[in-house]
């Protein structure tokens, strides 16, 4: 592509100057691979951006979206509906832990988080506890980039330019502990960090916190698996003090942890689950929030007859093309038993990732299910080595997402053992000569 054509597009979360000096473009994808402009094949080690769990360019999804766009391209989402939205909500609800039977659609993970915050506020107001205006999140959390999600964010680079976005957001400590370094799955140490929530209750008052947002596995910050007992204790405290627990499963949802949702993998049921990405296999933008039935009912009951109950929604909520993509995606997951496949691939995948710990540059390896973080010792400044690593891997034929100095590996569930071996071999090649 010519340099002048690269100018107008302002890339998100990207060093635009570096990208435009040395652009890395994908022009085609299929299954486990991308192709660049020169025709080189690049193995996808991160399912795109944790989106394409069933592999790229699935014809079933393309066909469903194409047909939908020729049948019913758009329906106003307020006061009107279309059958696919109800069908998809029903199918999403069927994957949820019992009791989370209502689904609100939006267009991204960020919107799902901000929507969940508003549902929490509307719910408490409807039950006469509108004074619950505090939200609790964690250090190192990523909850998207809208105003609410940025305020919840625990990643300094994502917040530092934006000042005080929302008053009353409190951050628990993160759970990345040196004691759990190189620990496969859930660490043994750190359950007591959940008591930060208790301290906040004691600090701001028993009926002041609306909701706690937790990524069951913190993904974008570099894969932090919760210590044993931690999520259970958060659940316990929330229940005790009437605080809503929201699991942000934008990365974990739809099989990444070996069950439909991490809530099931960890055996802890939240009050809401936010999701996006693999809901449509990344083929259409879509997010959703699954909500406990009585939260939905309380908000409905709180409004007078004839009055809209919840003043929130998007023009593209439950867009017909996104619903078609979602239904086709869930159909593939079901028919190909991809969540089970993710579960059965996980041990070999984790073996391959943890085997990299012998490299001197590797500082830590963390992982659960088909998700792993390989952290390298920092270079000149935090993040520089990680950025260089993803560039080098791309040039060798592997796409991975990096955050700071962590490579986040998350293959599609259609991966064959040979793809996992190839991902590990690329990482080993790229890291072998590096020294801390
Ligand atoms: C846990 C979590 N929440 C929210 C988001 C934001 O999603 P989106 O980029 O679709 O707005 C992400 C994106 O990676 C995420 O990992």
Describe the structure.
The protein has 436 residues and is an alpha/beta fold. The protein has two domains: 3-54 and 337-431, Alpha-Beta Complex (Aspartate Aminotransferase, domain 1), CATH 3.90.1150; 63-335, Type I PLP-dependent aspartate aminotransferase-like (Major domain) (Aspartate Aminotransferase, domain 2), CATH 3.40.640.10. Helix content is 36%, strand content 16%. It is built from 15 helices and 15 strands. It has helices spanning 16-21, 47-50, 59-71, 83-94, 109-126, 147-152, 156-159, 195-204, 230-241, 262-265, 293-301, 320-335, 338-354, 384-396, 417-431, and strands at residues 26-30, 33-36, 41-44, 102-106, 134-138, 169-172, 209-214, 244-248, 272-275, 287-291, 362-368, 371-376, 398-399, 401-403, 406-409. It has a seven-stranded mixed β-sheet, with helices on both faces. A four-stranded mixed β-sheet has the order 1-2-3-13. The chain has a four-stranded antiparallel β-sheet with strand order 11-12-15-14. A hairpin with a 4-residue loop joins β2 (33-36) and β3 (41-44). The longest helix has 18 residues, at 109-126. The model has no long low-confidence stretch (mean pLDDT 97). Pyridoxal-5'-phosphate binds next to α5.
């Amino acid at each position: 592509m010519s340099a002048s054509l690269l100018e107008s597009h302002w890339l998100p979360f990207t060093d635009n100057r570096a990208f435009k000096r040395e652009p890395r473009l994908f022009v085609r994808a299929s299954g486990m691979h991308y192709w660049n402009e020169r025709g080189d094949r690049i193995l996808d080690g991160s399912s795109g951006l944790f989106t394409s769990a069933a592999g790229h360019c699935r014809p079933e999804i393309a066909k469903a979206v194409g047909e939908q766009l020729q049948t019913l391209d758009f329906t106003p989402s307020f006061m009107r509906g279309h059958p696919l939205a109800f069908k998809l909500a029903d199918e999403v609800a069927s994957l949820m832990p019992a009791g989370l039977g209502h689904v609100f659609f939006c267009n991204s993970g960020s919107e799902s988080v901000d929507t969940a915050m508003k549902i929490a506020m509307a719910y408490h107001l409807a039950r006469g506890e509108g004074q619950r205006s505090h939200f609790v999140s964690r250090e190192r959390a990523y909850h998207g980039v809208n105003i609410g999600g940025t305020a919840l964010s625990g990643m300094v680079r994502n917040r530092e330019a934006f000042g005080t976005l929302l008053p009353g957001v409190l951050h628990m400590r993160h759970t990345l502990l040196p004691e759990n370094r190189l620990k496969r799955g859930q660490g043994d140490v750190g359950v007591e960090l959940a008591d930060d929530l208790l301290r906040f209750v004691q600090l701001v008052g028993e009926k002041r916190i609306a909701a706690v947002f937790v990524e069951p596995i913190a993904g974008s910050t570099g894969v932090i698996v919760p210590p044993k007992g931690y999520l259970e204790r958060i659940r316990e405290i929330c229940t005790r003090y009437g605080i809503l627990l929201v699991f942000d499963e934008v990365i974990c949802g739809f099989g990444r942890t070996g069950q439909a949702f991490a809530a099931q993998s960890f055996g802890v049921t939240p009050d809401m689950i936010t999701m996006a990405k693999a809901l449509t296999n990344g083929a259409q933008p879509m997010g959703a929030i699954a909500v406990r039935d009585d939260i939905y009912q309380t908000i409905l009951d709180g409004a007078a007859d004839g009055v809209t109950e919840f003043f929130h929604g998007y023009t593209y909520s439950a867009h017909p093309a996104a619903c078609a993509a979602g239904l086709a995606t869930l159909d593939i997951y079901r028919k190909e038993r991809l969540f089970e496949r993710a579960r059965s691939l996980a041990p070999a995948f984790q073996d391959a990732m943890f085997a990299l710990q012998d490299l001197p540059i590797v500082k830590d390896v963390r992982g659960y299910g088909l998700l792993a973080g390989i952290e390298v010792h920092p270079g000149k400044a935090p993040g520089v080595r990680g950025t260089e690593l993803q560039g080098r891997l791309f040039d060798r034929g592997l796409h991975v997402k990096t955050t700071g100095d962590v490579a986040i590996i998350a293959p599609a569930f259609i991966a064959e053992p040979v793809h996992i071996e190839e991902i590990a071999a690329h990482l080993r090649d790229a890291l072998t000569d590096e020294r801390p």
